[in-house]
Amino acid sequence: MKRLVGMLLLGSASILSGGLGAEVTVSDAIEITPRFETPRCQMWPRAAWAEEPQLWLVAWREGNTNALEADIWCARVHADGKPLDPAGIKVCAAADNQERPSVASDGKNFLIVWEDYRNGKDYDVYAARVSADGKVLDPDGFLVAGGAHNQCHPVVVFASGHYHVVWQSYGQDGPRYLLCATRISPEGKVMDRALLITEPGKSLGDKTASAYNPVIAATPDRILVAYLIADGNPMNIAIRSAVLSIDPTSGRPLGPPQNLGPAEQRMPALACDPGGALVAVPLGSAGQNTGFRLYRLDRTGKVVDGPRQVAAPTAKRLVPLFTLAFDGRNYLLTMDRPDLREGRVKQIKVWGWQMPPDRFPLSEDALKYDAVEKYGFLIAGVGDKYQMQGFACAGRKGHVLVAYVQVEGPNNLKLLARLVRAK
């Protein structure tokens, strides 16, 4: 695999049902960067919250959808929803493609990681620090993981004094992807050689299995990684999902992973709360979405409740993207939900569902096409435009920033955000 393919107006925020008794307000759209005279393609938003300066850093991939050149940009958003970098901040403009950013904060500053094709042969993992005042401390980034094959799909969190980066690495043990990890200090020093955290025949079960599409979540004293596993013959692949607990001090796995069962080829969603975690796993096969499963995990990543299968509107070749964030009170699940008319996708909107951590959330009917307004609330949906790639990131208690892409025309994708606040 070589290539992978306005100001906040608090006065006009809408007050909505949070789905399980709570009320939420959703702000008007926040223009993270202004509109430009020429179209721009801003995609794959990811964000992190820094407690000390009270702001989010939103990173994205900028470049036409089919172009062989794409860069990493970012911008800060204050806790009250005010955008702080109207011109945007260019993080990396190296040759060829930079894709799939992920962001974490040590509470003061930020680290952005991404997959990078600057060598012209395969992807490597690069990273750059960004200060709370918006300065890029490592222009164009520094190498985290390289090699003869792809090192890609990186994700990052901060725990126990270090940034922890996990990515999928090709060729570590045969022609397959496995997951590797390393630690990076707040000063930008790579602390470890790439550590293999999934092993064929052991943590993966099948000696021919691949591990890919990791997502990561953490509290100060623990780290969980959810990912997908492809077993067996490449002509008859069976996909399942798993969760692995990582020691935040050493960066090494803590025991075998927890098998979560069947999955689609899309990334799961994962977030932690003080008592455990919640994971959502998309379901489906042959491009046909059939919903997702929710699992309640304890602090070690062990399943303690679930799975609860939740129906979702089906659309051929369209599996909704999910994200989860814990705002200190409740979980917020976001989903890119297609608006189906006569069996066709006419629009995509970003919807949200609030779920308390102390009881199993959502009924099986919660995401059914004709019940979505009863259980959930609209986060982003304007006219006939597509709003998609929603990503939720918690800030101060009861506040979640949801960044998303609004499709305004061919090769014209605008990055926006909305602030969701629990009452």
Provide the residue-averaged pLDDT. 85
The number of distinct β-strands equals 30
The third-level CATH topology is Neuraminidase
Distance between the termini: 46 Å
Keywords: Signal
Signal peptide: 1-22
Pick out its properties.
about 425 residues; mainly beta; Neuraminidase; six-stranded antiparallel β-sheet; four-stranded antiparallel β-sheet; 30 strands; about 0% helix; about 55% strand; signal
Describe this structure in words.
Strand 21 and strand 22 (about 290-295) form a beta hairpin. Helices cover about 0% and strands about 55% of the residues. The chain has a single domain (about 15-420), classed as Neuraminidase (6 Propeller). It has about 425 residues and is an all-beta fold.
In short:
The protein has 423 residues and is mainly β.
Topology overview:
Blueprint: E1 14-17, E2 23-26, E3 30-31, E4 42-50, E5 55-62, E6 71-78, E7 89-92, E8 98-105, E9 110-116, E10 124-130, E11 142-145, E12 151-159, E13 162-171, E14 174-184, E15 195-196, E16 210-219, E17 222-231, E18 238-246, E19 258-262, E20 269-273, E21 276-285, E22 288-297, E23 303-310, E24 322-326, E25 331-341, E26 344-355, H1 372-375, E27 377-380, E28 386-394, E29 399-409, E30 412-422
Antiparallel strand pairs: 1-2, 2-30, 3-30, 4-5, 5-6, 6-7, 8-9, 9-10, 10-11, 12-13, 13-14, 14-15, 16-17, 17-18, 18-19, 20-21, 21-22, 22-23, 24-25, 25-26, 26-27, 28-29, 29-30
Signal peptide: 1-22
Keywords: Signal
